[in-house]
Specification:
Layout lengths: L4 E5 L4 H12 L5 E4 L8 H6 L8 E4 L2 E4 L1 H11 L11 H27 L2 H22 L12 H10 L2 H8 L3 H4 L1 H11 L2 H4 L5 H15 L3
Parallel strand pairs: 1-2
Antiparallel strand pairs: 1-3, 3-4
Helix pairs in contact: 1-3, 1-6, 4-5, 4-6, 4-7, 7-11
Length: about 220
């Protein structure tokens, strides 16, 4: 019996973008279902992730996997022969998981504060964000990708936030390319891959979405 793969996502979500990239990179046929996460979550979403009630969710042969990094690992371990994302060496695997966790706990947190705050709090968030990117540039080193010569787990975890650069820059009034050129060069390199470029939304579209989101929330 052929695998039945369904993905529930929300187009602006960087976490949803991760799964779209991984599925595309591995060439896994799947059905994508867009969710209205703010106003009308589907019964399938609520049934598949009753704890957090959020996307993305990967449903493989009727079995749901929630949380994007866990779903990425599941995808990698299930379709192990298709463009592996995690290295085979246990130590390198642990390091990849460490940096992916760093993206979630630091990069994502500071990035959100850049566009959601003002004044001193925003300045602190900008510094925190740029400091995180500097650490990631150090980890990347001279490699084309965090995975080495090929797109890897950390690349897939991080590149969706690259699509949010226009949001960070417009609201934060700074240039990430000026401050962290190696990071931007890495992002452009990733975008040369079809699995990435076709999975990330247009940056202007994301910026417009955030403008409307803040307006609805009454955030100036």
């Amino acid at each position: 019996m052929a695998d039945e793969v369904v993905m529930l996502g929300f187009w602006p979500s960087p976490y949803s973008m991760r799964l779209r990239i991984a599925l595309a990179e591995k060439g896994i046929k799947h059905e994508y279902k867009e969710e209205d996460v703010h106003n009308n979550k589907s019964p399938l979403l609520l049934k598949s992730n009753p704890v957090h009630k959020k996307v993305p969710i990967l449903i493989h042969n009727g079995k749901p996997v929630s949380e994007s990094l866990m779903a990425l690992q599941y995808i990698d371990e299930t379709w192990i022969d298709n463009a592996p994302l995690l290295p085979s060496d246990p130590y390198l695997r642990s390091q990849a998981r460490f940096w992916a966790d760093f993206v979630d706990n630091k990069v994502a947190t500071f990035g959100r504060k850049v566009w959601m705050t003002k004044g001193d709090e925003q300045e602190a968030a900008k510094k925190g964000f740029l400091d995180c990117i500097e650490l990631l540039e150090g980890e990347l080193g001279e490699k084309p990708y965090f995975g080495g010569e090929t797109l890897g787990f950390v690349d897939v975890a991080l590149i969706p936030f690259y699509s949010w650069l226009s949001v960070y820059e417009n609201f934060g009034n700074f240039s990430i390319e000026v401050e962290r050129p190696e990071f931007v060069a890495w992002g452009k390199r990733c975008l040369q891959k079809e699995s990435v470029s076709e999975s990330l939304p247009d940056q202007q579209k994301l910026y417009d979405f955030v403008l409307q989101f803040k307006k609805r929330r009454g955030v100036e």
